[in-house]
Amino acid sequence: MGKKGDKFNPVFKGLESMIKVHRESIKDSEPEEPPVAEAAPEPDDLFNEAMEGITPLADKGLKTIPEKGKNLLPSNPMPNDKEEGIAHLKGLVKGTIEMDIIFSDEYVEGALSSINPKIMKQLKQGKIPVQDHIDLHGLTKQTAETEVRNFILNSFKTGKRCVLIVHGRGLNSPDSLPVLKERLPVWLNRGAVKRVVLAFATARPYDGGTGAIYVLLRKR
Questions:
Q1: In a domain, 148, yes or no
Q2: Domain tally for the chain?
Q3: For residue 35, is it within any domain?
Q4: Is the distance from CB of 186 to CB of 130 less than 8 angstroms?
């Protein structure tokens, strides 16, 4: 038993100090209040802050490039051979093109309506002497057209009447299509060449057959 002047039973001696220590430990373990987050700046404020001190460029007639889209068309569409061929056929129907043309996989011919049938027959039979020739093998369409135009005009200037154009059968072309053969009737019937060509026809076998054509030119 404790002394007479003690306020508590010895069993509880030191209890008060233990309680004090326990309260302090609870206080230390309590989570701190989270800091108050600042309000996020508005997008316009961020833009204005980023552009501060920047001087806008003066408008010098610059054009805005439109965004890419499925419905936008190129300003200069690529030439379409099929459309050109259709336009050529429409010209024949309307009478704006004077030359009558026959075309198939094996044969091609064309002639002005005013040409003598006997002369046309001689041309198709290979009876008009060939005075010069050009070979288009290995050339692209663009290069071949230029070569044909120059060849025809030079032949006319030098007084030649019948020449031979070897265009090939297209066996080495993509899909084995005779691309140059299909384009020749168009090339021979437009521009300056049109004014000097009277007729043309698929050559005889000994002159190249379906891989070449005779071309009859006007007299100077």
A1: yes
A2: 1
A3: no
A4: no
